[in-house]
Structure formats: C-alpha cells, structure tokens
Design a protein that fits this description.
Largest interface: A-B, 51 and 54 residues
Number of helices of chain A: 8
Number of strands of chain A: 14
Radius of gyration of chain A: 22 Å
Largest sheet of chain A: 13 strands, antiparallel
Strand content of chain A: 25-35%
Shape of chain A: globular
Oligomer: homotrimer
C-alpha cells in the first residue's frame, strides 16, 4: 500500500470495570472433543481409570465408548471462559462447587456460558478487584443428546483497565443449575467381574479409610510442552506462551518466566492420584472448593497426595458409595540462587494445588 | 554375517539437473487426515474460526463436520512435495497462486502431484538454480467425493548434485487447474444468528476497512516441538530434525542450529491473525504470492499483523464478500553476542513471513 | 482434618521374589487405539509405508482402513506389561520371538497377559535376577473380531525388594501361541498397479540382496518430548519422567538424567529404515531376537542401518516373500567433559539397538 495504514490493536478480554452482576457471557468458539484432544490430555494426565483407556471396558459398563475423564471435561469447559473472564486476571483465587453432569464422549461439542455473580473492589489495591462468576457447560446444543456436563463457580482477581474507573460492585445469588453426575445403571446381567483385573484390586469403596493420607508414588516432570498443551485448550492468556513479553520485563511476571496454566497441574494431580483413588470410580461428583497455592514452571516435577476425609452411601445406588477426599499437589524447589549443579540437599516441598473432591466409587461387593 | 556387507546409501530427493520442464511427479505416500493430525495442527496454530473447532457449528453451516482450516490443508498438501521437489533445496523462494477447492474433513486422504514448469540456472552461482513447479492436491481419489482441494505454484532454489552437470533450462506455461473455493449454500432456513455469539462480533465483511493494519495482539513462543510437528507432516528435510548433522558443521547451516520448517510459521501466522481477520471467514480463496523473509528457530516468539488491502463482492453470493489482505509474520531478535540475561533494550523486529491472502468473509447482514 | 492422618505409600510393580514360574499376570487397563495415539506414534516414527498413512491405499489392499504399523502395535502391547513385569527392573535384556498376528486398526482395544516362564537368581549380584516371561496381546476381547495381535517373550533383570528373600527359581517351557501374520488375500481384480507410485520403486522383494548393509539416510534428534510419549503409552517407570528423583541422587541413575524408554528408539529405528526396507512390506512377520545396547537421552540424534541377511518364499503366497534383516540403531556421543561448543571432531558412534527382523514384502511382479 502506498499510504501509511491506520494501526489497529484490539483489546482482548475484560477488565474489572467491564463486569456487572447479572451479566451473561456466552463464550466464543465452543469445542468438539476429537480423538486427538482426548488422547493428548487423557494420556498426559496419566489417568489409570479403564473407562478412559479401554473402550470395550467402558461399553460393558454402559457408557457409549471411551469416557472423557473429569480432568479433560474440566479443561475443555474451563478454558472457554478464560478470554472473557480471566485474560486480564492477576490470579484465579478459588474454584467453588464444580459439579459434573452428563458423560462426555469423543465427538461431543461443548459450549459454555458464564454469569457474573459478584464484583468487589480491593480496598488496599485500587487497580484490581474480585469477580465472582458461575459457568455452565453444555454439550451438543440443538442436537440429540443435549445435556449439561459441568457447572462451577470461581473467584478471580482481575485488573482494571483504567485505575480511576468505578467498578460495578454488587453480589447476586447463584442460579440453581440442574447438574448431577450421570451414572450408568447397575445391571446384574453385565459381567463386571470378568473385567475386574483391569483396575486395581484395592481401590474399591470398601478399601478407603477416613483419616488416611495416600502419598501417590509417581512424579511427572513438566517440560515446555505446556505451551502447546495450553494452545490446544484455546487458553488465550499470554503469560503461558509469550516468552518475548516476559523477556521485555521479567520482574513484572511471577518467576520471570512462562507460568504453566493452572489447568495443567489440576489434571495432572487428578491423574497421579488415579491408581490409588480413582481407577474404580464411575465419576467425580463434585469439587466443593479448590485453589492453586504456588505457580508451576517448566522443569518442575509434580507429585500428589490424597487425604480420605469421609465416606457415605449414595441414595438409591447400593452398588457404589461416595468417597470424600482432599487432593494435594506439590513440587520441590531449591533455595534462591542455587543451580541444579549444586548439592541436592536443600530441596523444600512447595504445595501447589488443593482440591476438595468427592468421587463415586464402585463397591467390591457388586463389581469384583 | 561372516562377510563384510556391501554398503548401500540411497540418495534422497532430486537435484537441479534432475528436473525437466513438463515432467510430472506423483508424490509418494499420500496422507489421511486423522483426528490426531487435525487436533495437533488446528490447535497449534491457535485458529479461532468455530468451523474448525465446533462440529455442531460447522454442521449448521452446511459442512459435513469439523472443517480443516486452510493452514492444515496447505501443510498436508505441501509437505508431500518436499521429498521430490525441495529436499535438496537451499531456499523456498515464493508461493504463487495457491487456490483452495473442496473442503477437507477428518478421514479424507490427500494425494499430490507436481508438474515442473521451469528450470533456470544461476549465472552467479553455478552450483544451483531455480525450479518452478505447479502442484495439485486431490482427496479421496477413486472413492466417493474425489475432488481437488488445493493447487499452487512455487519457486525453489535447488542445489546441483554435480556442479558440472547441465540443467534442463526452459519454461512452459502452467496448466489450467479447475480449483475454486467450495462454499456451503446460503440457506435462509438455517438459524445462523443463534450461533453468532460463537465468533467475534467485529470481523464481518462490513467491519474491514482498506488502509487498516491490524497488529494482532497475541504472540506464541516456539519450542523444540517443531521437530515432532515436522515429522508429523512427513517433511523429510534433515535441516529441521537432525541436530548431529548441524553439529558436525554448524557454519554450513543458517544460524548453526535446526531451522523451523517454513510451514510452521505459515500456519501460526494464519492462526494468530484469526481472531481479528479469519473467524467469520467461510474459507480462504487464494494466496496470490507469499514468501519467507527470515528463518525461525526454537525459542523465538512469533507475532503477526494484517493489512487490509481491499474488499470486493463475490459474484452470485450476496451473503459474503472477498477481503484482500497482506499477512505479515515477525519475531524479535537480539544483536549478535547478546544473551537473554542482558538488558532487554536491544530487540529489533525481524520480518519472517509475508502472504497476500484473499478471504471469503460472511456479511453481518446475512449471518448475525 | 484435625488428626494427623495415617500415611499410606503403595508399592508399585513386582520384585524378583514375587515372580513364580507358571504364574499369570492379566495386566491392567487395556488400551484402545485412538486416532490421537495412532497419529502421534505413526508420525513420530517417520513410518513411510502408505498402509499406515493413506486410508484409501490401505482399503484397496484389503485392510479395513489405516493399518497400525508394527512399531505402534508393539508399543501399545509391550507398555501394558511394564507395571507388572519391569517397573522394578534394572534392564530389559532381550526381546525373543515377537510375532505379529491380526491387523490392528483405530478403535481396537488391546489387552495383554503375561506368563512367567522362568526365574533365575544372579550368582554375582544377590540383589537381582532374571525373569523370563511370555506375553500375548489380544484385541476386542468378547467383541466381534477378537484376535491375537502380538505375542513375545522377554528376559528382564529385576531387583529384589528384600535382598535376603528367596527367589522362586525354575523354568517351564513357553506356551504354543497361535499367532501368525494376517495378510490380505492377493486379488487380481484389485488395481494395485495404479497405487504403485505411492511407495518407493526400489523396495520390492526382488530388490533386496543378502549381504547388503543399507545405511539409512535420515537421522532424528530426540527432545524432552519423550516424557510425554512415554506417558501416552502408560509406561509407569519413573526413570523416564521423574527428574526430581534423578536430581536427588544422580549417581544412582544411568547418565544422571532421564533415560528414554526403550520402546521409543525401537519404533524410531523401524521408521528410519522404512523408506529403504519397509514401505512395500505387508507386515512384519517376526522379531526373533532384539536388545538395547546403550541408553538414549534427550538431545541424542538416532540413526539406523539394516543388513539384509536372507530371503525366502512364503508358502502359499507367490505374491510376496520374506526378507530377513538385522536392524541397527546408533547415535553419536562425545568424549566425557566435552560440550557442544567444542570442536566437532571427537564424536564416536555408539550402537543403541539391534533387532533381527523378518518382513513380508510384496513382489514387483505382482504389485507394480
């Protein structure tokens, strides 16, 4: 072009002053679960529940095919809210009342909408505040099998665009969302016992004892793979994938490096706990609360532990029970200034994640 | 074996003296688009057009399912020509008249053939010359739905195997290839408006103003993932994946390190521009010309910008229009000898890619 | 929880004293081949056989669709045995009599069982011994198309949990497993010749000469991607993915770094050899013996070579013949203490892998 063009640079995401209690975001894109997405995240997370690994096992149990594990459902749904809700966030403060609904299979298309429940300014930090939202994910809208697959609230610390702007402070009650975990019916004519060798023998409902803390035996080192994983989820936040932005002003960013998207340790902790806690679960019922306690970077190795908090019956389903747990994620960090070449004596354990999680677990009496 | 074996080392690819104007290469392998390939590249490129993300959206628009974005079609087709045409190339000089045809879906099998249009020796550099080729990609040959999906020309600087060899200089005109973008019919009975929230509200035909340059807001840092991505495309060139070859003689190779296959920044720039330019496009019509201006390496962060060059009607289709653009890719590089630990003040912008690109874009009047 | 929880840390895998000749392990999970898994490993390995790349080619040949290449079948089956057999192994000593059976397609669910054939203690090293096992992989158990897809033996050096424990020494003969390579019938009405350009013209049965060693021309550099690839295979061994464990006591681990799972170079060598040896094969018949000779690490570049050992007819199938080969993998290593910045003169070739491999190869007389 001969003339100097007019320069356009679009603002992305919303800022504190843009949120209004009661406001509804219908998020963009939507996302169909392909076998590529399914394989990448199910395997990344090291899930060991055969429902997500072995289609003939899942079919015998009454599912239509390979079942998306809860962590994948959460990632596909949650990520769709990032651009509207948290692209300009400082921190994701808390997950609240995350409840699973219909099962998600390969081929399902997930779309999400979010209602703003509350906006609160910070007294001490006038440039940010807290936004409280409620999100709901549906599959196959307008097609056969339309259903709610996940609903949750979260609280996010969001920056203002203009520090002098007035926020729309206020709080409204959450909507009642009819979302409860779908379970395949128990059917005595199905030969569950012949499949019992495909899951661990000591993770049935009868095996869990409240007051136990299970230190899961495996760890997993994260690499720069997290950049591609985050893109695969349509998470648009630049702190996960734009190294140039970090290099321009490292002091501005946590750790002075690309931070790993919180959804990654979320699902990895679920997966690391799976052989000890989840491989005889028919599904995850609810995450009542959860939060990230410290950032994760490429090179860190993630570990997990689970405390068994309680057990209860599930009304109308004598074949299963609910196990209430607290899932922890941690890594080990070295003192400031030490390199990997130093003596390995000064590692300290750093908690990175915590999730109150209730699972629906099969009873040995009915399945093995 | 008891005896010393006879050693065989096969030559791969062709050299300048092997090309003859009029010659036809029917490339090897072919490639079926699996959901794994689809997910990997669609997500890598950060495409935001719902036609490539959300199957129920694509079906309402009249596509059979998730639509392969133009960058993926280009990668799958182009890569098949590398071994025969450019495995022994010094540089890919220009993409010319790349036109899209039938839509490509998961499950389609793509095969490509290439005709040599011209061969020219270099006056100043007798060990190489320029080969001009025309390639055409078809899907599902001999099966229902056989169709042309892409045709293009390119000019490549290719080495001689024997510097003294005579090249078959000459030039013939390109074939007429019946390849024009398939568009789903506009159908007033379809409820496009109910899907309008799934794409950006400000990227309809009416929104583009010639004379505007849009600096796309997001960047993406490349990692060594490019090695696996390139293998996934069957690109056989060793400069992308054989570090030992580079280490043997670093001075011989651009930058002394593995260079990222040009197809990678090509699709990444398409993707980075998508939220501002492409998410209400029904397809890419033609890339009239394009070229790589500088190499890309692991660690570089890629950015993109688009200049709106012009707009025009598409005869017979009042529901859409053609937007003519120039897509730019760039990265930032530091002065020679500086390390990442240095003060971040001396970055300079380096253009890496340029593509003249016409898109068929929906009109708000008809779709939203 | 108010009280200090009881800490539970489960032991994973088995130790030398746990193995008893005649004992049967029915391995956990099973694994369905998704298009994600298929694409990741087929492409990673740089396979060039069109049966695994181009579905319409595979269908003309009489397969149901894209054919899982032998390396992928091996990886999916072998990995399922790791937790029970070799999670506590020091080394995988030998692959023996690995025979392929029914073809594996996307959608097939693979499950594996392993019989212990022998247990032997080490005279010199009382803390370990050798376990000899026979494994068999079936697909779609209890569903239409149930079939054996792979059977093999291997010998593994396994640690004791308690050095004072007595091992159950002994040896029993292997079971007869009815597993032989399924081949699509040769059908003169199929138009094989029209597809001949999709594979290399010089890799038919007639082209192989015993006494030849083919140095395959391409190399492939491994990156930290191996961590994700190994997780994708459900391989549970921590030496591949837990950097913190290595950093705690580097001297304890080979090379003081994460070691790449042996299945990775196994399939990569198959792939690197494919354009010269395997792209006109209808399948791999048997791997009579194989072993890993040296470890592979991120940053190493893998190369391969094939010696043609012999050729023979396949009874009843005049359209094909059996080519007996020995496949070698190697890398180049530098002298201790040298960095990549040093002069590149002191590389030495290190053999990493060896496999005696018989392929069923098409005859040009029948197919081209």
């Amino acid at each position: 072009m001969s003339r100097t063009p007019r320069i356009l640079r679009k603002k992305t995401g919303h800022f504190l002053e843009d949120f209004v209690p009661g406001q509804l975001f219908r998020h963009k894109l939507g996302k169909t679960v392909t076998e590529g997405l399914f394989a990448t995240f199910t395997e990344f997370a090291m899930t060991t529940n055969p429902l997500a690994k072995n289609a003939r096992y899942a079919r015998v149990y009454g599912f239509e095919g390979l079942l998306c594990p809860p962590g994948l459902v959460m990632l596909v749904a949650f990520s769709q809210t990032v651009e509207d809700v948290s692209e300009n966030a400082r921190a994701n403060l808390e997950y609240v009342d995350m409840r699973f609904g219909a099962p998600v299979y390969v081929g399902d298309s997930i779309e999400v909408e979010t209602k703003v429940l509350g906006v609160r300014t910070s007294a001490s930090r006038p440039n940010l505040g807290i936004v409280h939202v409620q999100s709901t994910a549906r599959k196959n809208i307008g097609e056969p099998g339309e259903a709610i697959v996940l609903t949750w609230q979260r609280k996010v610390q969001v920056y203002k665009d203009d520090d002098a702007a007035e926020a729309h402070a206020g709080e409204i009650p959450p909507d009642e969302i009819a979302c409860s975990l779908w379970l395949p019916p128990y059917d005595v004519s199905r030969d569950y016992e012949r499949l019992a060798h495909l899951s661990n023998a000591d993770t049935y409902f009868e095996d869990f004892e409240p007051g136990t803390r299970i230190e899961h035996s495996r760890g997993r080192t994260m690499t720069s793979e997290h950049i591609a994983l985050t893109a695969m989820l349509d998470n648009t936040s630049q702190v996960h994938c734009n190294q140039f932005m970090i290099d321009q002003d490292p002091a501005q960013y946590v750790g002075g490096q690309l931070i790993i998207f919180g959804g990654i340790p979320f699902v990895l902790c679920l997966g690391l706990s799976c052989p000890d806690v989840g491989d005889n679960a028919l599904g995850d019922l609810v995450y009542t609360t959860g939060r990230h306690a410290a950032p994760l970077f490429a090179g860190d190795t993630v570990f997990a532990a689970t405390e068994i908090l309680g057990k209860r019956d599930l009304p109308g389903r004598p074949d299963v029970g609910v196990v209430e747990t607290r899932l922890f994620g941690h890594k080990f960090a070295r003192a400031e200034g030490e390199s990997h070449a130093d003596a390995p004596k000064d590692w300290r354990k750093v908690q990175i994640f915590e999730l109150d999680r209730a699972l629906v677990v099969k009873r040995r009496s009915h399945y093995a």
